[in-house]
Amino acid sequence: MKQLITPILVCLSGILLAQPAEVLTLNKPSLSRGKNIMEALASRASATEFTSDELSLQDISDLLWAANGINRPEIGKKTAPSATNSQDIDVYVVTSKGAYIYEPVQHQLKLVNAGDFRELVAGRQKNFANAPLFCIMVSDISRFRGNDDSQKMRWAAMDAAIVSQNINIFCSGVGLRTRTRAFMEADKLREALKLTPSQFPMLNNPVSN
Ligand SMILES: Cc1cc2nc3c(=O)[nH]c(=O)nc-3n(C[C@H](O)[C@H](O)[C@H](O)COP(=O)(O)O)c2cc1C
Q1: Distance (Å) from CA 6 to ligand 1 centroid
Q2: Does residue 2 belong to any structural domain of this protein?
Q3: Bridge partners, residue 2, by sequence
Q4: At what angle do helices 57-68 and 149-174 cross, to 10 degrees?
Q5: Protein residue with its CA nearest to atom 4 in ligand 1
Q6: Which residue range is the domain that position 154 belongs to?
Q7: Which of 68, 115, 121, 195 is the most exposed place for a label (fewest CB within 10 A)?
Q8: What is the spatial distance between Cα 27 and Cα 24, in angstroms, rounded to a whole number?
Q9: Residue with CA nearest ligand 1 atom 11
Q10: CB of 84 sitting under 6 A from ligand 1
Q11: Is residue 177 part of a domain?
Q12: Is the CB of 127 under 6 A from ligand 1?
C-alpha cells in the first residue's frame, strides 16, 4: 500500500507546486534607474528576436509601473493618459506559468488563468513565443461614456498605444528588448484572459533581456 501512496503524494505535491501563486506582490518601482530620457528615445527600436531568460521581479515591477502604474496616488492618475480619464486600459501579463492582470492600485499581479498562453499572443509570429513575458493592452470600452462605439474603439486604440509606448521607452531606457505588436490570436486570447464582451485586446509587447 505504502508503495502506491508515496508516488500519488509525490505527484499531487508536484501538481500543487506547479500551480502559480494567486497574487504576485510587486516591488516598489525604482525611480532612479535607466538612461536619461533623450538617450532612451535615441536608442528606442523594435526588437526582432527575444531571449527566453526569465525577467527579474524588479524588472517586472518597474515595467508595469512604467506601462500604466499610478504615479499620482493622491488623485489615482497614471503614467499613461487616457481619453476623458476613462482609464480603460488594463495590462494583462502572460508568462509560461499563467495569465495575470496588473492591478495598479495594489501594484500587484493577480492570476486570471494558469497555463502557458504565449503562443496565442505570438500568433503567426511564432518565433516570438519564447519571450518570457508579454504585456497585453486590453481596453474595456464600457468605461467610456456615450453610445458611439466606433469612437470608443478609436479612443481604445489610442490609449493602448500610449501604454505600449511607455513600455517601449522604459525598455529602451533599461536595456530590455520589446516590440509593439497588433498581431495576436485575439479570439482565443479573449477566452484565456476570461475577458467580458466589452473588453478588447488591442496591442501587445513581448519583453525580454
Ligand atoms: C500599431 C502598431 C502595430 C504593430 N504591430 C506589429 C505586429 O503585429 N508585429 C510586428 O512584428 N511588429 C508590429 N509593429 C512594429 C512595427 O513593425 C515597427 O514599429 C516598425 O517596423 C518600425 O520599426 P521601429 O519600431 O524599430 O522603429 C507594430 C507597430 C505599431 C505602432
Answers
A1: 52
A2: no
A3: none
A4: 140
A5: 181
A6: 22-208
A7: 115
A8: 10
A9: 181
A10: no
A11: yes
A12: no
